[in-house]
Write a sequence for this structure.
């Protein structure tokens, strides 16, 4: 049975063309090898909507009667996890983690959850029940024991995962400059039982809490490749030695240039690298070494910067090495202002101590010295003051000559490297050192902005390492998502790739400034920050619509996505992925 449509064109005596449409319900069958047709009814007198319904029904489509009642039985956030899953799939992250199985699904769920909704593991378990991530990956209702077992499984796979990332991002084909960046950060711990927790230099300002430290190895663009966790009292040079061992022995990359800050690549580490052979380095000199270069008749003189902000110099203390001296005028102004503010603040705090000694309320050399030391060391300005103490007097004066000598070096830094000029020019050396800012950006993503690594709530050593690994892999995902979604956020889409002056501070492109001023994208849709965009994507929900037919017990449940907004649709377009009904 089918519906046929017949059109007849007719021009009346008045010259007006008319079209007559006849809708026939016809039956067709085959008889003796020939197709026979029979008209069953003329449907032309019926409304167009009813004719279309009959036609589509005969073609096999099912329709819900007007008397049916639709109920939304469940609505789950979907857009955010679907987008992050699409990026993970594009990066082949599931295969990178390991072979298919329950542990891999749970580990992948932990990584995606860390991007979409960073929280403790127990909170994440509850959230899986209320998100399509848990339903589609089959991890909703997972127990804490299963999650901890998945963390242990992921930790056992760390070396293989990082080796694959190193081949992808550090190997010569992807990294012709052969550079690897390494930096160290810390996060405070809760609890008292983790053997890694120790008191050390806190980069979070939590001096009263134990901490762990972790070093991040990245490609020049800041793409995370590997992470290592250390006790909280580990020094930068020790961590750097571990990074070099990892690159040479585990990743089998023999000719690399390791980039680290001045506290990490010390003279001892440089000598160790020389003994290894084939390993280059790029770092910055400490302030005392710079002062030595700037001493009388030294190679670092202010006249070097009369025409340019950088100059290459040599010194016998650094045989076979290149020294690139740079002067940043803006940094010089900032440091001079900071120094004057700290000197003034220190003198303000010392004034009550001087008044107490003068009035006789504070006496005795030892008590006076204790009070002065407590105050003068607060801003680390003791080196700039002469302090004379007797049993009943106190005299404090500024060391003007020393202050002026330090001020003369404001804004000056000297980069040290073994890489030949033929391989890396002076400008490229400066840019390479400044690329360490990309590692700092990754730490900011891991610790504060997006992934909330801290505080660390695990207490066994292996679980802490697994937790940091999960955060590193989530940072890897976030790095690519931020780059893909730059048109929808305030991210600069056109950062200056080549600078006329590499020493000068980086500036946003005019297009980025205009985007920030308009607060809209090219389609006049509101811009978001990264977290706000994920929140907006989460409003793209998957709804279970249950249709009930009156008078019967029959019911049909149809999963349906809400209509995506222009921003949501564009977010998936930028990932080169359709909006999926399900993930996995």
């Amino acid at each position: 049975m089918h519906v046929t449509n017949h059109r007849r064109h007719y021009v009346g005596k008045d010259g007006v063309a008319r079209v007559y449409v006849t809708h026939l319900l016809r039956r067709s069958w085959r008889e003796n090898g020939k197709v026979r047709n029979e008209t069953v009814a003329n449907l032309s007198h019926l409304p167009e909507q009813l004719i279309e319904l009959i036609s589509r029904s005969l073609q096999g489509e099912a329709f819900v009667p007007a008397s049916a009642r639709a109920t939304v039985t469940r609505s789950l956030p979907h857009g955010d996890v679907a987008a992050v899953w699409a990026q993970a799939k594009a990066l082949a992250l599931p295969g990178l983690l390991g072979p298919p199985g329950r542990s891999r699904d749970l580990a992948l769920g932990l990584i995606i959850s860390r991007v979409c909704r960073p929280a403790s593991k127990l909170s994440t378990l509850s959230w899986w029940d209320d998100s399509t991530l848990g339903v589609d990956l089959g991890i909703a209702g997972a127990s804490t024991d299963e999650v901890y077992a998945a963390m242990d499984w992921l930790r056992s796979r760390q070396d293989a995962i990082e080796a694959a990332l190193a081949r992808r991002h550090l190997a010569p084909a992807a990294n012709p400059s052969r550079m690897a960046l390494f930096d160290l950060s810390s996060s405070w711990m809760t609890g008292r039982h983790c053997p890694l927790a120790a008191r050390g230099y806190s980069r979070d300002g939590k001096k009263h809490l134990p901490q762990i430290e972790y070093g991040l190895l990245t490609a020049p663009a800041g793409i995370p490749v590997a992470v290592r966790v250390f006790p909280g009292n580990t020094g930068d040079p020790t961590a750097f030695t571990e990074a070099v061992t990892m690159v040479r022995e585990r990743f089998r990359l023999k000719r690399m240039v390791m980039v680290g800050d001045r506290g990490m690549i010390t003279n001892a580490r440089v000598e160790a690298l020389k003994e290894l052979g084939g390993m280059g380095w790029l770092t910055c000199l400490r302030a005392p070494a710079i002062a030595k270069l700037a001493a009388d008749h030294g190679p670092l003189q202010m006249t070097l910067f009369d025409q340019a902000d950088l100059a290459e110099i040599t010194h016998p203390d650094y045989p076979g090495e290149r020294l690139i001296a740079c002067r940043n005028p803006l940094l010089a102004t900032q440091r001079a202002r900071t120094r004057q503010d700290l000197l003034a603040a220190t003198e303000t705090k010392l004034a009550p101590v001087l008044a107490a000694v003068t009035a006789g309320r504070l006496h005795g050399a030892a008590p006076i010295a204790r009070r002065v030391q407590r105050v003068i060391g607060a801003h680390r300005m003791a080196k700039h003051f002469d302090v004379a103490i007797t049993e009943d007097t106190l005299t404090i004066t500024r060391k003007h000559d020393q202050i002026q000598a330090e001020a003369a070096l404001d804004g000056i830094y000297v980069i040290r490297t073994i890489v030949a000029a033929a391989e890396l020019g002076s400008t490229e050396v400066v840019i390479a050192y400044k690329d360490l800012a990309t590692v700092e950006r990754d730490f900011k993503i891991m610790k504060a902005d997006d992934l909330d690594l801290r505080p660390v709530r695990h207490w066994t050593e292996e679980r802490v390492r697994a937790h940091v690994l999960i955060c590193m892999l989530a940072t890897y995902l976030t790095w690519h998502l931020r780059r893909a979604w730059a048109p929808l956020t305030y991210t600069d889409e056109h950062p200056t790739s080549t600078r006329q002056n590499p020493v000068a501070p980086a500036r946003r492109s005019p297009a980025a400034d205009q985007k920030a001023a308009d607060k809209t994208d090219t389609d006049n849709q509101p811009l978001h920050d990264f977290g706000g965009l994920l929140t907006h994507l989460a409003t793209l929900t998957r709804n279970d619509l249950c249709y009930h037919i009156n008078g019967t017990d029959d019911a049909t449940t149809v999963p349906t996505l809400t209509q995506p907004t222009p921003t949501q649709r564009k977010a998936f377009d930028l990932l080169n992925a359709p909006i999926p009904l399900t993930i996995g």
